[in-house]
Amino acid sequence: MTSIAVVNGQKRDSSGSTGAAQVDTTTATAPTAPQSEGANGNNGAAAAATNGQNGGGANGAQQRERRCEIYRYTSDKPLYAAAWSYRTDSKFRLAVGTCVEMAQGNKVSIVQLKEETQELAEIASFNHDFPANAVGFIPDHENNYPDLLATTGDCLRIWKVNGSNVEQDVALNNATQFSAPLTNFDWNETDLRLMGTSSIDTTCTIYDIEVETAIAAVKPTSFTVKTQLIAHDKPVHDIGFSKVNNGRDHFATVGADGSARMFDLRRLEHSTIVYEDPQKTPLMRLAWNKQEPYYLATFAQDSNEVVIIDIRMPCNALTRLKNHNGAVNGIAWAPHSPHHICTAADDAQALIWDIQHIPRPVEDPILAYSAAGEVNQVHWGFVHSNWICICFNKSLEILRV
């Protein structure tokens, strides 16, 4: 293909000189989706110039300086959970986990972009009991703490990463005997000692972990259970800390009872229902806006739409994003903008939306990307805020937007 990106509904030709497609805030018409083709970005997520590809001189030098707009890592097994690293000294580094439905045979890989080869390559990996349904690096923006990675499946595990060496630091399990499977977790960005997990047993658990600083990282991470609460009447599917007020004490959950609920760590005897699906369909995931702390996104099981909620107006959908033709699987807000959100679905589409004009209806996305399979994950990079990652089939792709 010669056109593989759309900005504001306009195709970007690969011979253009403007380079990467930029997220714009102007009103857009419906874009034509680009396609996922070729490994290592030969057909990128944004316009990649082809002039001077084999030539010398100024054009050749200019071409060599251009960065590809898409990179792909391919595994020998289906991939599911993925996350960006927050460390500024480890650029373009991600974690991704396999999804094989058995107790053994799964692993989590740490991959990084190799500048010399322009490829996403595995730099470390470790075996994981059962598929990891969520992975996440410690949200340490200042590189003050050890390089930690958390995973959930049968329990919450924290791993220490040291180059190509990864060791399990601690397994956090609140149960004395039987442990119900976990569905997700979140790491509090304001207070890195706090982590929350959601479980199919209707509970959420908040852990207070003690993390040594990078200067004195000699003892294993220790933890205590800060609180455990029954959050829903049915399995809890997701949990996320909010930046409302001090950014430490509030978190939300969504569950199989079709509700989204807000909790305050200081007053856990009460919760507030901020949204209920009209049909009581299970809500699967939630995502907090990184810049506008009152905006929450969620979606229901087998639904092709994403609901945006303003928690100051509980139980009312601020807007609904309805352009997908398959069940939504993932949502991710831009870390640098209050107006942009990416959604991913079974229709193999990753769509970026501009919601700055709500409550006016948002009819169409401003950017679209077509993958080579059903997209089951999407995450927006914090360090690299103009890149997203998606997972489909046996592939992890990072796309410049």
Which residue ranges are poorly predicted, with pLDDT under 50 across at least 5 consecutive positions?
1-34, 37-44, 46-58, 60-66, 212-220
Helical stretch count?
1
Oligomerization status of the protein chains: single chain
Largest sheet: 4 strands, antiparallel
Helix content: under 10%
- Can you list the strand order of the major beta sheet? 3-30-29-28
Structural class: mainly beta
Question: In percent terms, what proportion of residues is strand?
Answer: over 45%
Alpha-carbon Rg, integer: 21 Å
Terminal CA distance reads: 18 Å
Total number of strands: 30
Shape summary = globular
Mean pLDDT: 83
Pfam families: WD40 (PF00400)
Keywords: Repeat, WD repeat
Write the layout of secondary structure elements.
Blueprint: E1 3-7, E2 10-13, H1 57-65, E3 70-74, E4 79-84, E5 93-98, E6 106-114, E7 119-128, E8 134-137, E9 148-152, E10 156-162, E11 165-172, E12 182-187, E13 194-199, E14 203-210, E15 222-230, E16 236-241, E17 250-255, E18 259-264, E19 271-276, E20 283-288, E21 295-300, E22 306-310, E23 317-321, E24 328-333, E25 340-345, E26 349-354, E27 367-370, E28 375-380, E29 387-392, E30 395-400
Antiparallel strand pairs: 1-2, 3-30, 4-5, 5-6, 6-7, 8-9, 9-10, 10-11, 12-13, 13-14, 14-15, 16-17, 17-18, 18-19, 20-21, 21-22, 22-23, 24-25, 25-26, 26-27, 28-29, 29-30
Biased composition (Low complexity): 18-52
Keywords: Repeat, WD repeat
Region (Disordered): 1-63
